Design the sequence.
């Protein structure tokens, strides 16, 4: 059983999709052991509370180093995987070492486009539309010391249509996020990801 900590900052629609995929049996041999937020009013916390999943809030104002250490204490020895699902703070220090290649993030663009420091939320989709690209999407990647620089695991693509607003695009990408994140979690549960240099390769199902 793969034990997961899901880290959120907002609505938690990606958390919801993980939970629903577990409920429906599409996501097998996984459990969400805890949900951690860096904002006490994150709506996603209720999605965990109503299922009696333990929730914790860290104070992001204490700074990345401090709350990353706090998170390490919460997860150490209790979970196998940390999933950043709309978590807006940057993780640092020993947490990254202790959970090397065991922290994944979902970003709402096709990395390396429209990512990095300050690129989050609606800004990502505004930038994609302004750049005139014809396709966008989402990326699931491992988390390293940089911002959105870790090894790419999976991407799903959506078209950008004539007259799309950033909100239209955000909605279309979010639908794909809800597929991409459970897919990657399943691959990790099945131990099908192999890291070769800077590349993540998906191996055959055993
Ligand atoms: C998503 O687009 C995610 O990629 C981004 O935050 C957004 C909100 O996610 N990092 P959620 O509804 O809170 O899961």
Sequence:
């Amino acid at each position: 059983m793969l034990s997961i900590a899901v880290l959120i900052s907002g609505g938690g629609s990606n958390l919801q999709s993980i939970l629903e995929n577990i409920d429906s049996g599409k996501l097998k041999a996984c459990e969400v052991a805890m949900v951690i937020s860096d904002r006490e009013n994150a709506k996603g916390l209720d999605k965990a509370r109503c299922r009696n999943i333990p929730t914790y809030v860290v104070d992001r104002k204490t700074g990345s180093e401090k709350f990353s250490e706090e998170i390490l204490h919460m997860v150490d020895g209790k979970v196998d995987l940390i999933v950043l699902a709309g978590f807006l703070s940057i993780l640092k220090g020993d947490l990254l070492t202790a959970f090397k290649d065991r922290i994944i993030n979902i970003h709402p663009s096709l990395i390396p486009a429209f990512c990095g420091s300050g690129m989050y939320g609606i800004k990502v989709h505004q930038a994609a539309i302004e750049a005139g690209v014809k396709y966008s999407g989402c990326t699931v990647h491992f988390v390293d010391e940089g911002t959105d620089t870790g090894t790419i695991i999976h991407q799903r693509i959506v078209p950008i249509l004539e007259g799309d607003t950033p909100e239209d695009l955000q909605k279309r990408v979010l639908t794909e996020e809800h597929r991409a994140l459970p897919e990657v979690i399943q691959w990790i549960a099945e131990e099908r990801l192999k890291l070769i240099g800077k590349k993540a390769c998906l191996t055959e199902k055993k």
Q: What stands out?
A: The chain is about 35% helix and 25% strand. The helical segments are 13-23, 44-49, 64-75, 94-98, 122-131, 166-189.
